């Protein structure tokens, strides 16, 4: 009976831990840096959430950040088209189907969350995440992959 109770108790405590694996927070700062360079998404997740937290103090107009995910091959095109789209569109081309997930453009002290449909990620595909604010993608970038 004790063993059964211990197993049930362990099940209760492990559930929140499993859920936590399907979300993370990434920080962007006024020095144009993300604090994470790689993200691995467990394939057991149905949805994976990435919360971007802008830890800086500058406003969105001066040092705005977003978190945009696409295939690595599409990164340059998404960034170039985002610059053409301008600030009024959050430096993202409206309706850009190359974008897998995104946050809105935020300023210092703000945060926003992107949701990734894990079923749409392909094993072996190279994904890149970056900030599309003009000039930021050169420094603010990383890779995302589908894990086990």
Please characterize this protein's 3D structure.
The radius of gyration is 18 Å and the shape is globular. With 148 residues, it is of the alpha/beta class. It has three helices and eight strands. The protein has helices at residues 2-20, 60-63, 75-85, and strands at 23-28, 38-41, 47-54, 68-71, 101-102, 111-117, 127-130, 141-146. The strands form two sheets. A five-stranded mixed β-sheet has the order 2-8-7-4-5, with no helix packed on it. It has a three-stranded mixed β-sheet with strand order 1-3-6, with no helix packed on it. The longest helix is centred in the N-terminal third of the chain and has 19 residues, at 2-20.
DSSP E strands, number: 8
Instruction: Provide the structure class.
Output: alpha/beta
Proportion of residues in β-strands: 25-35%
Q: Overall pLDDT, averaged?
A: 90
What is the strand arrangement across the widest sheet? 2-8-7-4-5
Helix content: 10-25%
Rg over CA atoms, rounded to whole Å, is: 18 Å
SSE series: HEEEHEHEEEE
In terms of per-residue confidence, which ranges show pLDDT below 50 for 5 or more consecutive residues?
3-18
Total count of helical runs of at least 4 residues: 3
| Global morphology | globular
The largest β sheet comes out as: 5 strands, mixed
Head-to-tail CA distance between termini? 35 Å
């Amino acid at each position: 009976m004790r063993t059964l109770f211990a197993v049930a108790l362990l099940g209760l405590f492990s559930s929140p831990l499993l859920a936590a694996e399907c979300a993370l927070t990434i920080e962007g700062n006024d020095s144009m840096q993300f604090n994470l360079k790689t993200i691995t998404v467990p394939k057991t997740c149905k949805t994976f959430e990435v919360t971007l937290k802008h830890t800086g103090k500058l406003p969105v107009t001066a040092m705005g950040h977003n978190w945009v995910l696409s295939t690595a091959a599409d990164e340059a095109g998404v960034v170039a088209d985002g610059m053409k789209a301008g600030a009024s569109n959050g430096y993202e081309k409206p309706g850009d189907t190359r974008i897998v997930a995104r946050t809105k453009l935020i300023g210092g002290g703000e945060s926003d969350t992107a949701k990734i449909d894990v079923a749409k990620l392909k094993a072996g595909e190279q994904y890149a995440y970056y900030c599309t604010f003009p000039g930021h993608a050169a420094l603010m970038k990383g890779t995302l992959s589908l894990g086990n």
